[in-house]
Amino acid sequence: MTVDPSLAELSDTLFSIAVALYSVAVVAFSAQLAFGRRPARQLVAAGGGAGGGAGGTAPAAPARGDRFGLAGLAVTVLGAAVHTGVLVTRGMAADRLPWGNMYEFATAVVLVGVVVYLVLAVRIPAVRDIGAFVLAPVVISLVAIGLFLYTETGPLVAALRSSWLAVHVSTAILGFGIFFVSGIASVLYLLKLRSDARGADADGSFLSRLPGAVTLDRVAHRTAVFGFPIWTFAVIAGAIWAESAWGRYWGWDPKETWAFIAWVVYAGYLHARTTAGWRGRPAAWVNVIGLAVMVFNLLYVNMVSTGLHSYGGLD
Amino acid sequence: MSTVAPPRPAAVPPPPARPSLGARAWGQWLRWWRRLTAMRTAIVLLFLLALAAIPGSLLPQRSLNQNAVRQYFADHATLAPVLDRLYAFDVFSSPWFAAVYLLLFVSLIGCVVPRLAEHVRALRAAPPPAPRRLPRLPDSGELATPLPGPAALDVVEEELRVRRFRVVRRDGVAGPELSAEKGSWKETGNLLFHLSLVALLLGLAGGKLWGYEGSILVTEGRGFCNAFQQYDTHSSGALVDSEDLTPLCVDLVDFEAQYEEDLTAASYTADIRYGGPDEEGAPATIGVNDPLRLDGDRVYVTGHGYAPRFTVTLPDGTAFTDVSAPFLPTEQATMSSEGALKLPDLGAGVEDQLAIEGFFAPTGLMQGGVLTSIDPRPLNPQVAIRAFEGYLGLDSGLPQSVYSLDASQIERGRLAQVGSANLAVGETLTLPDGTAITFTGVDQFAALQLSHDPGQVWVLGASIALLAGLLALLLLRRERFFARVGPAPGGGTVLTVGSLTRGGGDSATSFAELTGRLRAALDERSPTPSAPPTGGAAPEPEVSPRDR
Ligand code: HEM
């Protein structure tokens, strides 16, 4: 199992291209916010029937802002394709699944986040307007991943050579990526509530062009509802793997502990959403804390604490 | 099954209060109970549980790493004992952690059991009567039809039954009405999910009480039997009877570690024989991710290392041939290892004890007089050893590590260094008194672990049930649909319809779709269409706008 250096190099090049494309998308989405006059769903005339999907609203005659938005979306799609290429070439270079260390894991999580955003943007037109707020964290995350987590392509350590890698890590990546978008929606919801309370709707700030608070809150909730069972499955699969790899299914290893904490926080979020006194702002904060826990689990637990999960590939 | 639900008995007003002491205590208790089983309390307890787990990941834990705890005590001499009294190094077995999750589970049971009873009742009862004012429901609308009321309701009922609603018709105050419901699996999933959590906790607790595990380093050619005295370390649940351990012995026949070209460890495999104490033993190969699974017991390879062999020849000619001790790897990448070989009994008449402490390199390289290892494979085994003579302190009553010498004996001068050398295989260090220590070669050892956890199958079953319940709870939705007929101003009938949905998805869209289908069905049965049948498309139902 030797590493193919030219493929590994190609992967690194694609990584830079993906970051560049996403940066272009951020610019386009920002232009959309700057030039679009009002949130898209109020701009468009109902009817026309071109939308088809949920809501069924489609621009009758795209304004300048909308054209920027569509361009941003197109560049994002291109970026996601290149981003997929980063992982595919990595996997081919080392002839294995491309999530054997932190660099690959985090890169895959961000890709899932982008894809979740794109799916939402296609299905709920109002969500397109949050493009800048999704893509900017994406660019920042990728740059940080490239700078601090980069690991040379290499073979997997013995403990990771198991079909559970495909099951456990893939679902963890999926769950994390979905929570990423959910957390961003909750942050925007909180910002939106604040700007609404200040009556800033008319002043033309970026926030006033976001979808309504209700939509943001719903997007956050739906994505979390989608991510929670996946995360639950990832934790269960991890426990099953731990039983055959480490001799026990649960041992409060730091990674396990933080996965549990994240699970409890997201369960708390789903409860809070249906409990009087917790709806709205407090629930959104719980979701934001959930994302913070996920990020902490990725960074702190791999880089600072030592445990059985220390496969990060960083010394 | 158009049964009418039996009228529910009206709530009996409570008897005039006679506040006896018992009644007041009971009332107080009830109030506390309600507060504990409220969802708000459950949320707070959930967050407390998350908070309580945090110190367990930030501070070293005895259950994970005894050495790290010892190190913490050494580094924080004043703080550590205080933390220790708060169970900070045993968070997950501490009384306060247990208090949080037990309260949470009491809250959960108190919340779920009444809902379970309610759900069982609701499954058998007819859907509830239509609310008095249907237009107040989140989704509602009106449909006009020339059909007479009962016939219109027949059409609606048929359409709903095709969509697997349970339907009941009643004669309400305001006219004939219909209630329908589907999706009770959502609530079933909810209950399954929450009850699975309880089952999971019970399985976990059972495994802790009746389970045990033991670890031991076994050199090739040796073995162990399942008894607590034999293990290097072991832990066992409160209800484990040490007489009752599975009678099982395991011999390590051969151990092999394979590496990639870049020296990443690719696999470890141990060829073992296992069986009862007096049996020949069956062969098996175990390795990383691939334990030996017997009925209720598992045997794992959790690590490996090298045990250098020495032959020690005393001045009088007495020889200890090929004695060895496992050296623990200090660096996995190169398998540099450290350890000690102790010879407390050198034979009759010899008072001094002998020990060798040192560093082992599977592929040694001398760099500036210092031995380092450059490869994890045993290509050029070398040791850097120091020899000591004197009193080892093994019978002093204080426990000491088998992997190092007792530093306090050296400090007190009871154990003195008498020589040191870097040796390749076959080389000899001769001590001043004439004792010769020859490095004769190296064996591999495997760290083996035997685990017994009778609860884990339950935990797995509970987890699967939990996931199934969760999926049903989150993905399904419960829909209630109501219809009431009244006369239309210009003759014919007006159907007022409304629905109440719990669970994900866009209820307005599906309501619009359903009412569209109802209108089409009504039109089909009508002698003359209620709306001009132009264009073929069903006219839009009048759906009340909803949070747009
Ligand atoms: C370990 C603790 C618990 C976890 C992980 C948990 C998890 C969940 C989850 C994920 C949901 C789905 C929420 C949704 O549909 O949006 C839920 C629903 C629910 N839980 Fe829990 N729960 C726990 C404890 C409790 C307790 C203690 C109670 C009662 C006091 C409770 C009562 C409920 C109720 C009533 C619902 C239904 C909410 C609804 O769909 O309207 N749960 N629970």
Walkthrough of the structure:
The complex is a heterodimer of chains A (315) and B (548). With 315 residues, chain A is an all-alpha fold. Chain A is built from nine helices and no strands. The longest helix of chain A is centred in the middle third of the chain and has 35 residues, at 163-197. Chain B is an alpha+beta fold. Mean pLDDT of chain B is 85; it is low at 1-10 and 530-548. Chain B has helices at residues 21-36, 39-58, 66-75, 79-85, 95-124, 149-162, 185-210, 407-411, 456-475, 507-525; strands at residues 139-145, 166-172, 175-182, 212-219, 223-225, 233-236, 249-259, 265-275, 282-287, 292-293, 297-313, 319-324, 328-331, 336-343, 353-361, 364-367, 370-373, 382-390, 415-424, 428-430, 436-452, 478-487, 493-502. Chains A and B meet through helix 7 and helix 8 of A and helix 2, strand 8, strand 11 and helix 9 of B. Protoporphyrin IX containing FE (HEM) sits between chains B (37, 39, 42, 46, 104, 107-108, 111, 190, 194, 197, 473-474) and A (267, 270-271, 273-274).
- Our estimate of the beta-strand percent of chain B is 25-35%
Query: What's the structural domain tally of chain B?
Result: 3
Number of strands of chain B: 23
Order of helices and strands of chain A: HHHHHHHHH
Major sheet description of chain B: 7 strands, antiparallel
Strand tally of chain A is: 0
Shape of chain A: flat
Query: Structural class, judged by helices and strands of chain B?
Result: alpha+beta
Percent strand of chain A: under 5%
Summarize the main sheet of chain A: none
Rg of chain B over CA atoms, rounded to whole Å, is: 38 Å
Residue runs with pLDDT of under 50 for 5 or more positions of chain B = 1-10, 530-548
Sum up the overall morphology of chain B in one term. Answer: elongated
